[in-house]
Amino acid sequence: MDLFLQQFLSGVAIGGIYALVALAVVMIYQASDHFNFAQGEMAMFSTYVAWSLIAAGLPYWQAFLATILISFAGAVALERIVIRPVEHAPVLNQVIVFIGLLVIFNALAGWLFDYTIKPFPSPFPEQPLFGNPYIGAHELGVIGVTLALLALVFAFLRLTPIGLAMRAAAQNPDSARLVGIRVGWMLALGWGLAAAIGAMAGIMLAPIVFLEPNMMIGTLLYGFAGALLGGIDSPAGAVVGGFLVGVLENLVGAYVPFVGTDLKLTVALALIMLVLLLRPNGLFGRRIVRRV
Amino acid sequence: MGAVLEVQGLEAFYGQTQALFGVDFTLERGSITTILGANGAGKTTALRAISALIRTRGRVTLDGRRLDRRSPEAITRLGVAHVPDGRSTFLRLSVADNLRLGAYTRRDRAAVRTDLERIYSYFPVLRERRQQQAGTLSGGEQQMLAIARALMLRPRLMLLDEPSFGLAPLLVQDIFAILRRINRDDGVSILLVEQNARLALDLASDAYLFETGRVVLSGPAAGLRADETVRRVYLGY
């Protein structure tokens, strides 16, 4: 029972990070119908920004906030400068741009910060909180930060006029223009938010896997799996999917003998395959209800 | 009075294909003007061209201000509310959110609230269904929602594309009665594109007849109704 609880809770913690990545992916997918393959590398690069700021002597939480702002602004600029010109290009061109960004960010991080593995600080104490034996303080902190961020994002999307405009622009760009919404900027805003969310995922993940240019590759796959599982057009579904993948991955790793830690990533890939085969809309994906 | 909308030498393009060939027309302030024509005559294209949803050449002015070369969202901000044909509502948002978006560019919040009440009084069924997803409404209710959303802008000019399309005759009567009321009580100028020529000519004061991207006939609605060709081809008697 103890082992189960331990594995389950650490699955929830890591699942929170997948949920963030999944949410970032879905935000861009909803607005533009494209998977941003570079989402993980952008998050990794943001994490290096945070590392540099901390190394320069900034206190942790200030560096954390500054990184989120820098990531937001950087991604808005990236969308306006790099993505906008190919907005109406064929799908394949766009995919190539995304892959190009992935390679560029990966190489840039290696070139600027080299490929050696760096430790990354956690803002949470090393001792487990409240003396509980089941979950470490960092993991508990990750869950807390994730839930707080998710609440913020959903409040923004549901309760603010800009959030409503973003959802409208994603659903029906032409009609959105006709009510006066600047659809192009909504897409840029989506990129900014996605990058900010991704940055948080990277910063939360780095103390667990250490900082290096390839740190997000596996996580991005889990994030994709979570997004697909929950439903690629549903932000809430993506979040639930992310948590499910995290828990599933941990439990399968612990209890299915031949999987262990080596084959954990296979679990994510198998899950993607299964979802696409059996339930392409995902668990919470929408089959649009309409009357004729 | 004077013209609220003036269009001169308007050409429009879908990719390489030209769909309008030097169209001229004017819309008197406070009037209802209709564009008639068969399928493919360029009626919808004319509205899309005014809203800058497609590539155009020529001159379009609203109260003397150029609309061509502005973006669709900028044109909306000048008070032009375009109700496109088909399902133009935000299907996965609630009726209330759809209406709220209609007033997205407005900053006078108190007036938006009173407008919302007024519009619910025009369309009581929308008030009943305000929490429902727009996608669950019937075709007629969606058309009402699209018109209501446009009204939330407090437009000076409304562009309406086939508001009668696919609706039951009684419902069409209702919607046209509401359009007449909006025009009379709120002073909104209306440019109406319709296939149902009889209805449109009853409502409008002026009319233009389009054929293959050109204006072939124009004048007071009564004059067009009396025209031999219009009567035979478009009114069918």
Molecular structure report:
The complex is a heterodimer of chains A (292) and B (237). By secondary structure, chain A is mainly α. Chain A contains eleven helices and no strands. In chain A, helix 2 (39-55) runs antiparallel to helix 3. Chain A is globular. Chain A starts with a helix and ends in a 14-residue tail after the last helix. The model of chain A has no long low-confidence stretch (mean pLDDT 88). By secondary structure, chain B is of the alpha/beta class. In chain B, 39% of the residues lie in helices and 28% in strands. Chain B has ten helices and ten strands. In chain B, a hairpin with a 2-residue loop joins strand 4 and strand 5. Classes of the chains: A mainly alpha (292), B alpha/beta (237).
Kindly summarize this structure in a few lines.
The complex is a heterodimer of chains A (292) and B (237). With 292 residues, chain A is mostly helical. Chain A is built from 11 helices and no strands.
List the helices and strands and how they pair.
The complex is a heterodimer of chains A (292) and B (237).
Chain A: H1 2-32, H2 39-55, H3 60-83, H4 91-113, H5 137-159, H6 161-171, H7 173-178, H8 183-209, H9 217-230, H10 235-255, H11 264-278
Helix pairs in contact in A: 1-5, 1-8, 1-9, 1-10, 2-3, 2-4, 2-8, 3-8, 5-6, 5-8, 6-8, 9-10, 9-11, 10-11
Chain B: E1 3-14, E2 17-28, E3 32-37, H1 43-50, E4 55-62, E5 65-66, H2 72-77, E6 80-83, H3 95-102, H4 109-122, H5 124-128, H6 139-151, E7 157-161, H7 169-186, E8 189-193, H8 197-203, E9 206-211, E10 214-220, H9 221-226, H10 228-235
Parallel strand pairs in B: 3-8, 3-9, 6-7, 7-8
Antiparallel strand pairs in B: 1-2, 1-4, 4-5, 9-10
